[in-house]
Design a protein that fits this description.
The structure holds two protein chains of two kinds. Chain A is α+β, with helices and mostly antiparallel strands. Chain A has one domain. Chain A has a six-stranded antiparallel beta sheet. In chain A, a hairpin with a 2-residue loop joins strand 5 and strand 6. In chain A, helix 3 packs antiparallel against helix 4. Chain B is α+β, with helices and mostly antiparallel strands. In chain B, a hairpin with a 4-residue loop joins strand 4 and strand 5. The chains are: A alpha+beta, B alpha+beta. Chains A and B meet through strand 1 and helix 3 of A and strand 2, strand 3 and helix 5 of B. Strand 1 of chain A pairs antiparallel with strand 2 of chain B.
Chain lengths: 181, 160
């Protein structure tokens, strides 16, 4: 039996199911589509999208590194966008603000912030899962001629995160014991 | 009559042998065909190169297929963001590139991956002003990692 009512029920049920997901799972993935417009101005764009099966496959390459493998297996996604520009001023404060505003939502907290003329603005943000752990992370680097966003979705052991630096598109930003440089 | 009876097993064998070909990544063939149509140029014959690549490919890599377009005019193919859309449309909407690199000079690199049992099927597309390469292969992560750690030792054990 098929009726307009039953057709309407399916999307409504889906919306309810999505609403029932932990808020952290929905918030941990940033909306970065607005950055796509920067591609036309950039001298180089690198995008890494690792989720679902791709992430599971990536974990297989870490067979002999159990610490890094365990870290990856708990994640649901790693998303990286890197834009390099020939001249400063290619991206606007609105581009940056669109990211920062998402990181001001409840649950997010900044654990590292570095502002310098040389290194630009570097921020490391963590999303609390409300149970003492975390549900996601963002590493955000805004330099004069470079914009980098690394969005890791899923629970992360910050102590072990440095084992993923330089892998799976995650740049080396000095996440070791000394914190971000 | 005898001829027909004799032909049946041959046909059956050809059909059976054709199964793996059917199971191959069709995106590779589609990409090569469409790039060939755009560039109006066939890819370089990779017969001997393919043979060499199969002989000397890293441990854990199989089913290597490669198409190299040389001395092409990239302006014949879609440019910039249109090339992104062209590749995505040809590969299929169900697959997202794991890695996409785009440079202002027109260079583009795409890496697609999907699981095939215990192995990973990789599809790489790289295009620049006068060249384009499409590469398809299957990788066994464990064997490949072992090779990465000790390529010489594995080669010795294999008698290379």
């Amino acid at each position: 039996m098929s009726s307009p009512l039953s057709h309407a029920f399916v999307p409504a049920a889906l919306v309810c199911l999505l609403a029932a997901l932990p808020a952290s799972a929905q918030q941990a993935r940033l909306k970065l589509d607005h950055l796509n417009a920067l591609a036309a101005k950039a001298s180089e764009v690198v995008e890494v999208t690792l989720d679902g099966q791709a992430l599971a496959m990536g974990a297989k390459f870490l067979e002999k590194e159990p610490e890094a493998r365990a870290l990856v297996q708990g994640l649901t996604g790693i998303y990286v966008k890197v834009f390099e520009f020939e001249q400063p001023g290619a991206y606007t404060s609105a581009d940056v603000e669109a990211i920062r505003s998402q990181l001001q939502a409840p649950g997010w907290s900044r654990i590292v912030q570095v502002k310098s003329r040389k290194d630009g603005d570097v921020g490391v943000y963590v999303l609390s899962d409300g149970k003492g752990g975390n549900a996601g992370m963002v590493i955000f680097v805004a330099e004069a001629k470079e914009l980098v966003v690394v969005n890791i979705v899923g629970p992360i052991d910050l102590e072990k995160l440095s084992s993923l630096e330089g892998r799976m598109g995650i740049p080396k930003v000095g996440l070791g014991k000394g914190g971000a440089k | 009559m005898i001829g027909r009876l004799g032909l049946a097993p041959v046909l059956a064998a050809v059909l059976v042998a054709g199964v793996p070909v059917q199971a191959r990544d069709r995106a590779f063939s589609r990409l090569v065909d469409r790039l060939e149509a755009h560039y109006q140029k066939a890819p370089m014959g990779t017969g001997f190169l393919g043979f060499l690549a199969r002989c000397f490919s890293p441990e854990g890599v199989s089913g290597l297929r490669m198409a190299i377009f040389e001395d092409v005019d990239s302006r014949r193919a879609p440019l910039g963001g249109d090339f992104d859309a062209f590749v995505q449309r040809t590969v299929g909407p169900d697959r997202t590139p794991l890695v996409r690199v785009a440079r202002k000079d027109g260079e583009r690199v795409y890496l697609y991956a999907r699981p095939q049992g215990e192995r990973m099927e990789l599809l790489v597309v790289a295009a620049e002003a006068t060249e384009a390469v499409v590469l398809s292969m299957k990788v066994d992560p464990e064997r490949f990692q072992a090779w990465m750690e000790d390529p010489e030792g594995l080669a010795r054990r294999r008698g290379h």
